[in-house]
Design brief:
about 20% strand, 2 domains, Glutaconate Coenzyme A-transferase, globular, binds coenzyme A, about 425 residues, alpha/beta, single chain, seven-stranded parallel beta sheet, nine-stranded mixed beta sheet
Length: about 425
Amino acid sequence: MNWQEEYKSKLMTANEAVKLIKDGDKIVTSFGCGEPRGIERAMFENYADFKDVEIINMLLLGDTPWIKDEVRGHFSYHSFFASHSNRKAISGGIADFTTCHFYEIPSVLKNVIKPRVTVMSVCPPDEDGYVSLGTNADYIESTLSYCEVKIAQVNKFVPRTFGKARKHISAFDCFVECDEPLPEVPSPALTDVERQIGANCASLIHDGDCLQLGIGGIPNAICEQLKNKKDLGLHSEMVGDGVVDLIESGVINNSKKTLHPGKTVLGFAFGTRRLFDFIDNNPDIEMYPIEYVNHPMIIALNNNMVSVNSCIQVDLMGQVVSDTIGIDQFSGVGGQVDFVRGATMSRGGRSIIAMPSTARGNTISKIVTKITDHSAVTTTRNDVNYIVTEYGIAQLKGKTMKDRARELIKIAHPNFREELTEAFERRFSEKL
Ligand code: COA
């Protein structure tokens, strides 16, 4: 049988494909821009045919159908990352949430959660019978090696990407052809505060550095400030639209990279059609599974690795809270700690946590004497390096507790510096 015959023999309608799912199954699906919505729709429309099926993924950009009242008892939902589409359900106990470093998710899936079925998006096969996982290699790539049932939605809007995203059609059990535009993540307009944070971060980034840019508004602000740099590299769990101009203009050319020189290495793409078109058939972009891209030892093989991520709160010891607001799960650890540690281990590397100095219309300081009760520390005080706000840069590594507090108070919003200083003095005088 040639690949065309094999492909044809595996073609099904979405309604036929979902019949491969059994009651009690655990199903891992692609997330973000790689969400296989055509197959998910068929699962949702036929929900009454299923019992106790658990859907596992990172986050969905639109609604999460698996938390709706009508599917209860038929489907349940289990996420690795809270977002607007599942946050309430996680806080309310309707959805489950698992926290672990992103590079560990593939092994947690394979060895602990053990899904039987995997569902993902791919682009149509090329002339040799290879499809591509498109925007998302991340945790989904390795599911092809251990899930019993492997279902792909073939969608012409999925970009053809290379690296480990390229898969032969023999890796799948069934294909459902369904063309539909991918979910998109538009970049919000930058605020002046974000621009200033971007400028402060850019002052820590040197020509020839290799970058990781995290999630949230700040990465795009940084990209805007990097236009005059040279020979930057990119090795990042994810990217948004912000990097496209930098690669097109040659600022990011990966020429100084010590791992995958000449190539941009990514785990997933999280942007708009502009980004999808840019990575489509682009031999300079390579997608790899997250257990590789995010492994601190792999990250560290890039010299001068600089990670840039954001957070919710930092206390005066430098403990960083990035994914909880009190008891509520706001997002997830993602690859923050993977990259903080990898960058720290890299020769010439450094890690940056960048954030506005305040939240909620300047009413709350994000630099605090004590983190909010029930919040979880994401990046520990032992891992932290640079903290950046619109007011400047605090370098914490190797600093005493007193000096950390002094550095952080300097970059806090002026409205809160006095109360932070009083708390700091009280704390240390009581100890004397
Ligand atoms: N107290 C209370 N609320 C706070 C707060 C604080 N200290 N800090 C932020 N918030 C609120 C904001 O007011 C905002 O609320 P709103 O959505 O109601 O407006 C919300 O939290 C998000 O703040 P914002 O600064 O706009 O977030 P962002 O989109 O820039 O994302 C993180 C920031 C920290 C949530 C995000 O970077 C993250 O999830 N990080 C952890 C994962 C990670 O770093 N992964 C690495 C690579 S992907």
